[in-house]
Design a protein that fits this description.
By secondary structure, this protein is an all-alpha fold. It has four helices and no strands.
Length: about 150
Amino acid sequence: MEPPPDTITPLKGNKNVSLGKLKITKKIDIAIRCFKSVIAQNHGIKETNLLKLLLPIGIDSDDLDKVWLLNMDTFGEERGEIAHSSAIKRKQPPNPADELERVKQIIQELERVDQRKCWFQSWFWDNQWSKSASFSKSSRASPKSSNCSTDN
């Protein structure tokens, strides 16, 4: 993203300042395009992938369980080993009971993260600055139109 202009009034002659540097709707459009690009290029579940997806949508890094992030890294590494190598190279198959327990823990934390996302979405929806005329309700997804309940 480009740095903001020094002034909204041009200092020299008839040089115009780009509206993209001034209007919040343009900045939001740029941020959305950048985030959609991050989503499109994501192919992993490791910590780095999760942070690129969660931090920009308002999930605070303090809200992410560090043990869960480590589990996701391990799960991603082991998944990659299985997916990208032949069955002959695998020394020992995973224990189904252990894997089921790990997946349950991963899902439990994902549900917690989803609730945090829903809280942030509801906060954004209710916040007065998000109701400006230039960022109309019709262009935003309501918590009611997603998987979020407004009780969060």
